[in-house]
Amino acid sequence: MTNSSVESNVVVVEVQGRVGCITLNRPKALNALSLDMIRAITHALLSWREDDHVLAVAVRGVNKEGPFGAFCAGGDIRFFHQAALSGNPALEDFFTEEYALNHLIHTYPKPYIAFMDGIVMGGGMGISQGASLRIVTERSKLAMPETLIGLFPDVGGGYFLSRCAGRLGEYLALTGLTLSGREAMSAGLADGYIDAGRLPGLWASLAQTPFENGASVERWCASHLSMTATAPSWPTKEVDRVFGLETVADMAAALAETDSDWGRSTLAALRQRSPLMLAVALEQVRRARSMGLADDLRMERELVRRCFHLRPGAGSDTAEGIRALAIDKDHSPRWHPATIEEVTPEEVAAFFVPPWPAHAHPLKVLG
């Protein structure tokens, strides 16, 4: 068996036995995706797609102590902020290439196995939700928290959240709720559970086991997992009742009348977030429910263009949200509009006006 390795400083790409292994290696940033990382992963997947020697792909992250412990905390939001304020065209490339990678993973012809140990948020969900096997542990923390930074759950979030049962997709998209590994399984966002201490042994076995085909690699990994989901920790009927309402303002009013800890904490979570982007995210998830993956990613590419350019530079809620969370760290974003109740349908509709004609869409080639 041949083992080969290509190491960039931020992604380690290896063939171990007959499995293509990708390790995200930017631990100080919790493996937040940079454009270089997106390109390295894309290059590996495209080269292995046509390589008969590689039967399957496995992806993991490292933390400061070594392999596992952190998967991927999302996109590099500090870069987004700097690029938005300086007009750096690499910002456009980042989202175009990231969403193309998300599509490649969802449609990959070989098993793609995601070891989702530790933090898996935003862009980390984008490179794991399309996996044929999504593995979580007791350390897993999954979320789409984008509304907190004045963004929306992108990287295919409209597609995979809208496929959750009932109105769970709206609930997760708007509140950014963090799920444990077992909770992610009950939400339909993970397939199997393993104790984190067993991950290194399972990963090492990929190089040493004589697999005959891709399906046998996936079966081998699945045989080490518990596939039993626990009961949801959220009140399913209340989630469906509240998050099935027509507008975010309606939801806030309903939550204010709900005499429960869940109602109070959920309303508090919504009040922290960009009112405008809550409304945009709600519309996104509801539109995505009747879309295929490629159309959803094209819609999200249009939305992210609007996030940075409807009100350019520091005027966008996205730039302001990142400033408050990650740059100045004052956690006091000045949202515009300031409250959920002030958002108008016209402000939301502006995000869904395509900024390009179909023939010039940066993701027009997605199948």
TrEMBL record:
PANTHER family: 3-HYDROXYISOBUTYRYL-COA HYDROLASE (PTHR43176:SF6), 3-HYDROXYISOBUTYRYL-COA HYDROLASE-RELATED (PTHR43176). Residues 19-352 form the Enoyl-CoA hydratase/isomerase domain. It is an enzyme of class 4 (lyase). One of its GO terms (molecular function) is enoyl-CoA hydratase activity. Its EC number is 4.2.1.17. The keyword Magnesium does not apply. CDD domains: crotonase-like. It comes from the Bacteria. The keyword Lyase applies. It comes from Hydrogenophaga palleronii. This is Enoyl-CoA hydratase. Keywords: Hydrolase, Lyase. InterPro entries: ClpP/crotonase-like_dom_sf (IPR029045), ECH_dom (IPR045004), HIBYL-CoA-H (IPR032259).
